[in-house]
Amino acid sequence: MSEAQATHRVLLVEDDIRLANLIVDYLKSHGMHVEVERRGDTVLTRLLNYKPDIILLDIMLPGMDGLTLCEKLPDYFAGPILLMSAMGSNEDQIKGLDLGADDYVVKPVDPALLIARINNLLRRKAKPMQAESHCLTYGRLSIDPHTQTIRLGEKQVDLTSHEFELLWLLASQGGQVLSRQYIYQYLLNIDFDGKDRKIDVRISRLRKKLGDNIDTPFRIKTVWGQGYLFAPEAWNN
């Protein structure tokens, strides 16, 4: 498939030239248009001219490391971020996800697995918001699915697109316990393996932004052994 026919645009941020070339060749063979940036401190400038659908981001980079960059990217880029690193510790993965990354792979990564992860993230981005003709309102909280606007009292709450998807899923089924398996299948199209913390991290960020109690949450509750529950009665104050 020629680059003119490519359906997805990828920005690969990787300073290892040999690895970058291997990834570029493989992604292009699967119909993707790929551009490479080798320094972290030039990525934000690159985004002014190149509009990728997804960013593959190495952690160890000259100029600016990937974790610092990951924290800055949401102000410039609304698509998914896939972190790549030879450091596979849980701490690295949790920190990357907490800073806004959507997924994490450990290098060296199998090319077929990398394609599968990319396609999964792109499917999630393309998945339309559940069609609703009205906003959801719980006490002082209002959620508009069309503009993705959240208001809590007089305050507008800024959420990422992934945080909004999770909040909408929980709020549209308020009062019901949603299992992690259900949430993973609905939002990520994958099974929950009992270890992955993507949804836990997003729940934690939602609680902080929505004024929930982090130690004893009462608005988005954890039902141990079952999942999460959006409490409809907890938004009056």
Automatic annotation (TrEMBL):
Keywords: DNA-binding, Phosphoprotein. Residues 9-122 form the Response regulatory domain. It holds the Pfam family Response_reg. Residues 133-232 form the OmpR/PhoB-type domain. It comes from Shewanella algidipiscicola. InterPro entries: CheY-like_superfamily (IPR011006), OmpR/PhoB-type_DNA-bd (IPR001867), Sig_transdc_resp-reg_receiver (IPR001789), WalR-like (IPR039420), WH-like_DNA-bd_sf (IPR036388). The keyword DNA-binding applies. The gene is rstA. PROSITE patterns: OMPR_PHOB, RESPONSE_REGULATORY. Coiled coil: none annotated. The modification 4-aspartylphosphate is found at residue 58. GO terms for molecular function: DNA binding. Signal peptide: none annotated. It comes from the Bacteria. The keyword DNA-binding applies. Gene3D superfamilies: 3.40.50.2300, 6.10.250.690, Winged helix-like DNA-binding domain superfamily/Winged helix DNA-binding domain (1.10.10.10). Residues 133-232 bind DNA. This is DNA-binding response regulator.
